[in-house]
Design brief:
It is built from 13 helices and 8 strands. The chain is mostly helical and 388 residues long. The strands form 3 sheets. The chain has a 3-stranded antiparallel beta sheet, covered by helices on one side. A 3-stranded antiparallel beta sheet has the order 6-7-8. A two-stranded antiparallel ribbon has the order 1-2. The protein is elongated and about 120 Å long.
Length: 388
């Protein structure tokens, strides 16, 4: 520390004094002064640590931005004149430290930056091509493709959004705002799951929000009416036609339509194993009725699509002239399960066996839920009470 002379009063003043103690003249405001007219005090600029070579860069963009810090990956290409080939930013962030974290994650596993900017619509187009056109292992029907396109159209609010920026709330809002029935919402959820699986495989995203989506309306397929005996006779008469076999399998097994996508078929001991939705229904064993053994032998769960079969189901019933019930309601795939329940009652299948075959919970009936058992042969005897 040394002494200096105040230019205003001539007194000696410390060299580190902000102002002269004798007359108040400002002495050391230059580092903090915004302008010569003693405007607002300017804070010293905060210096961030220097990034390692080959790590990338972080730039603060001009203007009033919500996310002014851009994180850029390292430059790896140069033009013939030596100038660098600019690359897209990894992302834009609210502060330097968030940008640094993003850049650090990028350097752990670099990804295709161009793919991170593609829209929901572009991901769908690529996903559709990959699944329905390039895949030679499975053959998808026209109705399956139509179902996927219909579900995509119902997601129009997301079409132009960047896929990687979508959150769970964005997907859920599409489901909640859609006025269609439960079956149509199932198609949308199924599409989300397929697209996110494709996006994960191709490093377009690293999070799968589709697994958290719920349908917040009652499943309108749970209500239904069984097919009449006359309608059953007509189905058997036309069992050689496309999709009728599958309808009859559903009627004489009692499984929900979704279960057929993962159904296990044992053609040695002749039983189905599968089920969805409830603890009592999952993984249950249902003997294969004698009348549908040939159908079961030909049925391939791997090629079964719930969304495609729904369309085929309605079209098949229309062709047969039994699309509507006696009460004027449209038959649904769930009516097959109602028909199985009616057949069990009509042919006096014992109540415990019926509950076990259909995967019903026994609720508070402790005696039956704990001590009620049926062997495969006993269940087979009961299901063969049903006559065709």
């Amino acid at each position: 520390m040394s002494l200096t002379t105040c230019p205003e009063c001539g007194h000696s003043v410390s060299s580190i004094a902000i102002s002269c103690p004798h007359c108040g003249y400002p002495m050391n405001m230059t580092p903090y002064c915004k302008t010569a007219n003693m405007g607002q005090i300017k804070k010293p600029r905060k210096k961030h640590k220097k990034l390692p070579n080959g790590f990338g860069s972080i730039k603060k963009l001009s203007g009033n931005r919500c996310r002014p810090y851009a994180a850029y990956p390292p430059v790896v290409e140069f033009r013939s004149n030596g100038s660098p080939v600019t690359v897209p930013a990894v992302g834009y962030f609210e502060d330097w430290y968030t940008a640094f974290d993003a850049l650090r994650e990028y350097n752990k596993a670099p990804y295709d930056l161009s793919s991170r900017n593609i829209t929901f619509k572009e991901v769908y187009q690529n996903y559709f091509t990959e699944k329905y056109e390039r895949n030679k292992k499975r053959t998808f029907s026209k109705s399956s493709k139509d179902s996927a396109n219909a579900a995509f159209k119902n997601c129009y609010a997301l079409h132009d959004r960047k896929f990687n920026e979508l959150k769970k709330s964005d997907l859920q809002s599409v489901i909640d705002a859609c006025p269609l029935k439960h079956a149509s919402l199932e198609l949308i959820v199924s599409l989300f799951k397929g697209m996110y699986r494709y996006a994960l495989e191709n490093e377009i995203t690293d999070k799968d929000y589709s697994q958290f989506i719920t349908i917040n309306i009652k499943d309108d397929d749970e209500k239904g009416e069984p097919f009449t005996q006359e309608e059953l006779d007509l189905l058997w008469k036309n069992s050689s036609k496309d999709h009728v076999e599958t309808i009859l399998i559903m009627i004489y097994s009692g499984f929900r339509i979704k279960a057929f996508e993962s159904l296990l078929i044992n053609t040695e001991e002749w039983y189905f194993k599968g089920g969805v939705k409830t603890d009592a229904g999952k993984g249950r064993i249902v003997p294969i009725h004698e009348s549908i053994k040939d159908f079961a032998r030909r049925f391939n769960p791997e090629s079964f699509s719930t969304q495609a079969f729904r369309l085929n189901f309605y079209r098949t019933l229309e062709d047969l002239g039994i699309a509507y019930t006696e009460n004027g309601k449209k038959h649904t795939p769930h009516d097959c399960r109602h028909t199985f329940s009616w057949l069990c009652d009509h042919y006096h299948v014992d109540e415990l066996s019926k509950h076990m075959l259909m995967g019903h919970s026994l609720g508070n009936d402790v005696e039956r839920s704990v001590y009620g058992h049926r062997t495969l042969d006993e269940l087979r005897d009961e299901i063969h009470k049903i006559k065709v």
